[in-house]
Specification:
Blueprint lengths: L1 H20 L15 E6 L9 E11 L2 E2 L4 E4 L15 E3 L6 E5 L2 E5 L11 E10 L12 E9 L2 E9 L1
Antiparallel strand pairs: 1-2, 2-3, 2-8, 4-7, 4-9, 5-8, 6-7, 9-10
Amino acid sequence: MRVSAVAAAVAAILVPAAAAATPKPISPIAIGGLGTATASTAPSRAGARPVTLTLTLEVELQCGRLQRGPIVVSLPESMPLAASLARTAVLLDGKPPATVSLAGHSIGIGVPPRTGIVCDVMSPGKLKIIFTPAAHFANPPAPGRYAVTIRAGRASGTAQLVVS
């Protein structure tokens, strides 16, 4: 019985040590689709004004929130814009952003600072930006496909805005 107890004790020590001696690598988790972007206006006909412009971008989120900003949106040169853009005319995931700036056809959107507890869960998700009719945007005068570029954090994508 004494030999069995000693053998069990030795096995309890050696088996975990042997398992720890040969680590097996874990392959990285690939997150696909980051940078996929969409753009649409309502109404979508050429020359319509004012329009609601809705943009989405697949990004990496931390606890469901964008990690860092700013967000930069580049609109087509043929899309008529107002001379200024009010912060309240833009919604970032349903809420007004911290700041908005307009320089030509590039729009900078400041991400509101994080509040509360932030966890370490990273996951893919969609960032949604809506420019309401109060932004005074208009569709390009001619039907066609127009490139809209969105950059947020490490993700960027180009969407095709279809105007009929």
